[in-house]
């Protein structure tokens, strides 16, 4: 017992002597490099040629581009603009700023919008979810404006948020001027940028019940004067292409026929974008052709699940003294069919990181290799928070080891 007490005192003295040092963990000291940008496959590599001004085929999980035609050309997107409008609303619901059940009062400005609409009257009220359904299915311009005003206070402030979010998503060929895509100067985006924001949007499971529903009925009008209004989905892709799950159509004389579409088969989810097709029939035929190419040649390999432990990390001078490092999100990569077994993974940790650590803080990356060549990197994060241990905490930890 005396020996244990003496040992404890020695440990305490050592702790006090070193306590003022920098608190950090000591994983493998390795910096995280940036993967080189990938070449976007064109007609030459794929044999595909799309009858439209621009087109992109993208893996919806990893963001890998499988085909590109004028992918970064700046073009008017028409109502495909509403992908960003819906994304901001759903992200605001996710963060708790607003709720799907919120009541929205329709303004004069919203009710006066032209083009496709729900024909709502100033002063009538709807939930956020009803308006989202109208935007998703019937491309309701009035619904898009009402949602923008509800979240940001005005259309102008909402458009500022649209452009800010576009920058955060690295959408370099995009500038929004309105919420709905009605013709206006300097309102543009690209097929690639639309695929990026569509990828962000369809991670919300709520979208599937709107994007895949063919018809629905809601009540519109002021109290006492309500009437049934039928919503019919503008996206015929969900009727004609097996596995189609969305997303948004668009048309103006300037933009031509546009479409951001998504389809899923056997766990593989793809996004296709068509801009500037000559007819509605052409846009659906061309995106179907892209999807056929993607599903015939590629398959998705699940690498890890959200929350799956990748490493148990010991902390120096931290409490707790050990935390799990986990996947931030589900991880899957796309490979050519028959190449599933070519995928390997490796955990790489950041260098020294000072305490405290926050839950969800990135601590490293899961690196995915195919045939020994790096393919993708995905964040791994702290499963829980950790703080700088007090002298008492450290003494208790060391005494437990001794005892």
From TrEMBL:
Keywords on record: Carboxypeptidase, Cell shape, Cell wall biogenesis/degradation, Hydrolase, Peptidoglycan synthesis, Protease, Signal
Pathway in which the depicted protein is active: Cell wall biogenesis; peptidoglycan biosynthesis
Catalysis: reaction(s): Preferential cleavage: (Ac)2-L-Lys-D-Ala-|-D-Ala. Also transpeptidation of peptidyl-alanyl moieties that are N-acyl substituents of D-alanine
InterPro entries, sorted: Beta-lactam/transpept-like, Peniciliin-bd_prot_C_sf, Peptidase_S11, Peptidase_S11_C, Peptidase_S11_C_sf, Peptidase_S11_N
Domain (Peptidase S11 D-Ala-D-Ala carboxypeptidase A C-terminal) ranges: 298-388
Molecular-function annotations in GO: serine-type D-Ala-D-Ala carboxypeptidase activity
GO biological process assignments: cell wall organization; peptidoglycan biosynthetic process; proteolysis; regulation of cell shape
Domain of life: Bacteria
EC class of the enzyme, as a word: hydrolase
Active site residues according to the UniProt entry: 79 (acyl-ester intermediate), 82 (proton acceptor), 139
Enzyme Commission identifier(s): 3.4.16.4
Coiled-coil regions listed: none
Keyword set includes Protease: yes
Protease recorded as keyword: yes
Family annotation (Gene3D superfamilies): D-Ala-D-Ala carboxypeptidase, C-terminal domain, DD-peptidase/beta-lactamase superfamily
Residues the record lists as binding substrate: 248
PANTHER family tied to this protein: D-ALANYL-D-ALANINE CARBOXYPEPTIDASE, TRAFFICKING PROTEIN PARTICLE COMPLEX SUBUNIT 12
Protein's job: Removes C-terminal D-alanyl residues from sugar-peptide cell wall precursors.
Assigned protein family: Belongs to the peptidase S11 family.
Name of the protein in its database record: serine-type D-Ala-D-Ala carboxypeptidase
Protein's organism: Hominibacterium faecale
